[in-house]
Amino acid sequence: MTKKTSLALLIGSALFIGGCSDGKDGKDGEDGKPGGGGEPGTSGLHIDMAAEAIATINNAAYANGIITLDFELENKEGVGLYGLSSDNQFHDFRFSLAQLQTAEGTELKQWFSLLNAPTNDEGTTFEQGFESIKDCAECLVDHKDGTYTYTFSTNLTSVTDPAGIVFDPALTQRIAMEMQFEYDSGHELAENAHYDWIPATNATEGVETRDLVTLETCYSCHQPDSLKAHGGRRLDMENCQSCHNGLVTDPNAISVELGHMVHAIHMGENREGKDAQGNIVPMPYTIAGYGGDHAFDYPAFPTKPTMDCTTCHVEDDSLADKDLWLANANTNACTGCHTDSPAEHKSDKNPELACTDCHQVDHRKFNKPYESAAAYDVKFENVKVENGAISFVAKALDSEGAIVSGLSHKVYKYTAPVVQVSWNVEKDGAIGDDTADSSPWAREIEFLRPTSDKPNPDHVLPDSGVMTVTAKDMGIPDGVSVELMPIFSICFDAQGVDVDCDSDKVSGSAYIKSEPHRINMPADAQGDVVARRAILDEAKCRDCHSAEIRHKDNGLVACEACHTSDQGLQDDTVDGVKQFRGAGFAWKVHKASGHYMNKKYGGSGTVMKTDCATCHITDESGNVDGIELGRASEGRTYVFPTSKTDGTPMYASADAGACMTCHWGHESDAMLSHFKSNGGYYGEDKALAIEATSSEACAVCHSPAKLMEVHNK
């Protein structure tokens, strides 16, 4: 049968069937039943697809012992993040509670955690507990648009807290939220949020606070990443406060309250107290962690005076309680620095008395010498350079312009009155040549009082305070710029008045921060004096190190004047064990304890390689132009030991040497080949290093932006 025949039969059949109809339509069927309610649609982005998460607690309500809160999650574009779930293995999301209690009759305000859990078998030490969404799936409601509701499963009026803390709805309560999602891909989402309120009144404004410091102040010294505590889970100061509160300790009953812990950690190796026999011994803060006991027995607070509390307790009007630390109300904070058996006590501490029962100390008094010295100056007169020799008269002046007595000049080790002489200031200072390295000792003029051991010093520090140098031969080249850097430390009494350093009235000493005296300085096309190239931002250094960074501290220019890049190597041999290191300023800064940036090789984590801007100058746009290469003066080189135990000097051209101040000790054939192929040098011949400084082309590729990019990996 053909296709045409089949089609004809099909049409005929259709007509036959149609002919059977009576032409009337059938009745309409009954309406179907309404469908069931569907799942609400979603709006936004699934949280597992997010690059970051920003959390906000918008509201909280309290009724019959139960707290309910509304919060939202969004990305930085403001798109809501839905999909938070107790069933998702990566969604580690939890809440904690703390209340702010005031000690009766005192100014002490302290957070105390709720939901506490014991940390030892005896049930005598505690830590803050949490409610996790994984423990209560029905507590969390996802509104599918980035907003959520969480209802605490704990009834605060009926629960018995193991630490004995009783919830009071009339007090300021803090809800702290933390999330940390660690995906198999390596991607991580971490965020904190908090909400302070009074449940009894539902008030969020005008509530009691305990705002003494900000996390931004911590960033003066710490890299933000280094303060992501507990594996990156704790990010905000408010979350730190509510967890490290007045109740919690480690299993050995060592307080981990934030005030105590921070003070104790920052005392580092300087924390000491008395043992059972009354001997003063080191007592570094030691706590039990998940990996065992950890002692903070290393340098940890790089400020002088050590008691410069204002490094952290800054004048910040945004802090409601910025002056609370001056009340000396928190004895636990006192023992953070001074221990429970203070070394300063002539007798044993009475256990029945708190520190504040006897002591009311304004710790700002330790800053008085530095505040006074800031108003002092140094004046040079009759400065003359002839035939390589220098002559001058120098005197320190107080805030009224009067000459400071020579008896008020501190003479002790590195602190004797010194004038550091440099030349070729605009060319990176008095660097050496191909026959000799630079020596700060050869360029230093020290003034001393006659003693029985040294009755005739080369340069006398007279009682009058007027110091004179006549034709001191220093080999200064003809016609070059010359700098006289005064390094004078003055003794002060408790009122900030300079006094005889042998007097029992001495409260402390401080260096005068005085501009160096310069002559024969060149000018640029605009008529501005050309001095040292700008590399570091001293204000940033002071934010962390405070008034005194190191010995001979008359600012960074004093550091640069002494520690030139080719200063000879330093031999730290101890008990016959060789230990060599560089002495140039870049080496000392990059390798300093707490500064060593390369985490791969055991860096501190305080300042890491990812943030050159911590110390270096930046322009108005935030570009770190202080690390710009290709600016070194002709003849500049760096000197390094061959190894830690081999003091044979190795020299580097300027840009290669700048890199080596961090990378020394980890140099590879590939690195050295890269230096050489781009005109740089690293080897034993200083003359070749000097020659290479004028030809190396590192700056062609390694712009400040490129350097920051590679160091951020």
Automatic annotation (TrEMBL):
Q: For the Outer membrane cytochrome MtrC/MtrF-like domain, which residue ranges apply?
A: 210-328, 533-712
Looking at the record, which segments are called Disordered?
Answer: 23-44
- Every copy of the OmcA-like N-terminal domain together lies at 55-204
Annotated InterPro entries: Decahaem_cyt-c_OmcA/MtrC, Mtrc-MtrF-like_dom_II/IV, Multihaem_cyt_sf, OmcA-like_N
UniProt cross-references to Gene3D superfamilies, sorted A to Z: 1.10.287.3080, Cytochrome C3
Q: Taxonomic classification, please?
A: Bacteria, Pseudomonadati, Pseudomonadota, Gammaproteobacteria, Alteromonadales
**Per its record, how is this protein called by name?**
OmcA/MtrC family decaheme c-type cytochrome
The organism of origin for this protein: Shewanella pneumatophori
Compositional bias, Basic and acidic residues, is annotated for 23-33
